[in-house]
Design brief:
homotetramer, 5 helices, 0% strand
Chain lengths: 133, 133, 133, 133
């Protein structure tokens, strides 16, 4: 698990719980990949015309989770305001994507799994945000 | 100017002013590139040890502006909540980065230019956010 | 033009022509944004079912151009092998995307513009690659 | 393990072995995160002045691995030329980063772990590339 190992070896102080931070980075990375793959799987479905919004929300959620995973992987010169605002955006994106994928979860297995990852990521980001304030 | 051309040719309705949207995407792309280049220029300075926070804030700002430029380049299945939350995060990141780069603007020309791009991006994102509500 | 300004203020030596490098970064950024916007415009077309490959190639090309723009914006500890290999990949992606968008250029104005940006980016990357060897 | 689950549920044919593809995506994501974290950890070291090249190579490797993970997470309208060229670039970046981090592996635990992830990623990408030709 490189995320946990890397955070353990950070050579200076981190003002947040390292375990909780690692959990968030892991959830964000998982969610970003699931959303990238779900957008592509939707694109392959016969009914792609009905999945336009799902593709788009997936792409947005992937970009936002990826940026958030990077920001939370940096501890040097930490700025709580940036992390907090980005976590808020990430929670919004994950919730929207979970809702949208959830609408097709019974039809498309990839949407069911992706909705799960988005919910998990939303929860983990929310916990981290609460721990920060 | 491909940003303006592309937004003009979008084949469906956009609920926001296309000129204003294009302005925001352009400012975000400029800012992301300036921050990426400034982080690297700081890394090359003799006093890199005093520029750690500046490098870090530049990297964060670049990632957040890039994600925001992508989200604002998509109009299909538009979700105002995601755009709004991400613009808030972007404004926070740009302001922090402008402040941090501003501290070294007299010493380092790259920090002076980068601070300018961050201020410009912050303003453009704020205008778009106001137009959205 | 922050790309040119930033490269002018880089505080150490660059082993490549700064004008040519700036041209490449500008072309890459333009191309990445056009591809992101074209993927989304395709998604909005009634015939999205016939544009699946176009959306996908656009998304790949955007990701590769964006990574290349970032790598070429860094000059500290420059490694020619990485730049060369990535430029090769970028040229391949731009050519594929220009071909794919070119197939729908008469039907869709966004594909016509995007194909142009991909061709321009391919040429600029090729010139830089030749100048590097 | 969402990467494996997502690839299993892709609704169309994939011309590559799904297990091997999932291995590559996992290695790429791990490597990208390790490089992002290692760049930041280097930035926090007292001797940051001697780690400039390491920070830079880490940032390049993170960007290239991340773009490659995204491209390999898409199967719709697959273009072997793009994947092959990008895998070549990724192998080059991982090797350079493993070499550079390897130089500081005895001094810095984060460089030791990051070098390991880069080597693992290089190997996995090489295997996939061989399986593709």
């Amino acid at each position: 698990m490189p995320v946990r190992e890397m955070i353990k070896t950070y050579p200076a102080q981190i003002n947040l719980n390292r375990e909780r931070l690692a959990d968030a980075v892991l959830a964000l990375i998982d969610c970003a990949q699931a959303c990238t793959a779900c957008a592509d799987a939707c694109l392959s479905e016969e009914q792609v015309g009905e999945l336009r919004k799902c593709v788009r929300t997936n792409l947005d959620c992937a970009d936002i989770c990826q940026a958030t995973a990077r920001v939370l992987s940096r501890h040097t010169g930490y700025d709580a305001n940036i992390s907090r605002a980005l976590l808020e955006a990430c929670i919004t994106a994950c919730r929207s994507c979970a809702d949208e994928c959830g609408r097709h979860a019974e039809m498309h297995e990839h949407c069911r799994i992706c909705a799960e990852r988005c919910r998990a990521c939303e929860q983990t980001c929310r916990s981290l945000l609460e721990a920060m304030s």
